[in-house]
Design brief:
There is one protein chain. This protein has 108 residues and is α+β, with helices and mostly antiparallel strands. It has a domain of 43 residues. Helix content is 37%, strand content 9%. A three-stranded mixed beta sheet has the order 1-3-2, with no helix packed on it.
Length: 108
C-alpha cells in the first residue's frame, strides 16, 4: 500500500528459472514407455522395498478381514444333494425360498 492508501501496481513476474520455462517437448508413446521403464529400472530397489513394507502386509490384512467379515455359514451347504448323488451337468438349479440355498432338480 502506498501513502494514499491505494495499492500500487503489482510486481513484475519472476524471470524463468534456469531449468526451463520453455515449452514441453512432444513425445511419442515409445518415448514415454522407454522413459518409464528407465525410471523403474533406476529405482527398482526402492520400488520393491515399498511393496514389501506396505503392499504385502496390507494385502494379508485385507484377506484376513475379508475372510472374517464375509465368512459363509458352513453348516448350511449351498448345494442340496438329492438322493445322496451330486447334481449332473444337465441339472436345473432353483433357489429354495425358506433357506436361500440352492436345491437340485433333476432333468427328466
Amino acid at each position: 500500500m502506498d501513502d494514499s492508501g491505494n495499492f500500487g501496481a503489482p510486481p513484475p513476474p519472476p524471470p524463468p528459472s534456469a531449468g526451463g520455462g520453455g515449452q514441453i517437448p512432444q513425445r511419442g508413446l515409445g518415448d514415454i514407455l522407454s522413459n518409464a521403464f528407465e525410471l523403474y529400472k533406476a529405482n527398482a530397489v526402492k520400488l520393491i522395498q515399498i511393496v514389501a513394507i506396505v503392499v504385502i502386509p496390507l494385502t494379508f490384512i485385507l484377506a484376513l478381514l475379508t475372510q472374517v467379515a464375509l465368512k459363509q455359514n458352513c453348516d448350511n451347504p449351498s448345494i442340496v444333494l438329492q438322493n445322496g448323488k451330486a447334481p449332473s451337468s444337465d441339472a436345473k438349479w432353483t433357489s429354495a425360498p425358506a433357506t436361500g440355498t440352492r436345491s437340485h432338480v433333476s432333468a427328466a
